[in-house]
Amino acid sequence: MSNFLGSVHLAATPIDEEKPDKATGIGECLKLLSRPFIFLCFLGIMCHVGIDVGTNTTAPKIIMERLGLPLEEAGFATGIYFIFRTVGCFLGAFLLRAMSPKMFFAISVLMMLAGMVILFVCDTLTLLYVGIGMIGFGNSNIFSVVFSQALVYTPNERNEVSGLMIMGLFGGTVFPLAMGYAADAVGQVGAVAVMTVGVIYLMYYTLKIRKILLLSAKLF
């Protein structure tokens, strides 16, 4: 009898079940671009990808153009970039625990800017490798910082933000097109100039990280 009464009581007790997340469409993702900070994050992701793809394609060409090395030897520049990018991803997990995202992001962007300057003015293999390595290390954690900032800004729309940032990854592929036109016009230094525009934008974005951190502190 007690089991029967217990079953009746359980059946009459309302149970709040978590509703599944609503399916996220492209329209919901694109609507977030109307928010200024999310738009800045989207452009930041595009610059990150543009610098990443651009360095991989341009670094060997710079070495071939300035030093006259064959592609087989100049292609090692891509390996240098990936080595430093991998090391940067590994160390970034620890460095982000020891310093603020703003400081870490600023250091990363300054490293990329220094690397771009080296690619502009230097014509020795060792220095060119140093510049390529600095760009790889600096660009290794840009995506993670920008992505986390966007999520902090819109904690209730994580799915939409994630979708929009992934769109930014594909959108960054427009950089190589602009770099190609610039390289045809003035040589590989033109391609470096296009990437430098992306780095300068990330410097501007660094100034915005401080504001969103202050806002997130108020929200939580």
TrEMBL record:
SUPFAM superfamilies, alphabetized: MFS general substrate transporter (SSF103473)
Transmembrane segments: 37-54, 74-96, 103-121, 127-152, 164-183, 189-207
GO molecular function per UniProt: transmembrane transporter activity
Membrane topology listed for this record: Multi-pass membrane protein
Swiss-Prot/TrEMBL keywords: Cell membrane, Membrane, Transmembrane, Transmembrane helix
Pfam families cross-referenced by the UniProt entry: MFS_1
Cellular compartments per GO CC: plasma membrane
Subcellular locations according to the entry: Cell inner membrane
Chief localization: membrane
Name the record gives this protein: MFS transporter
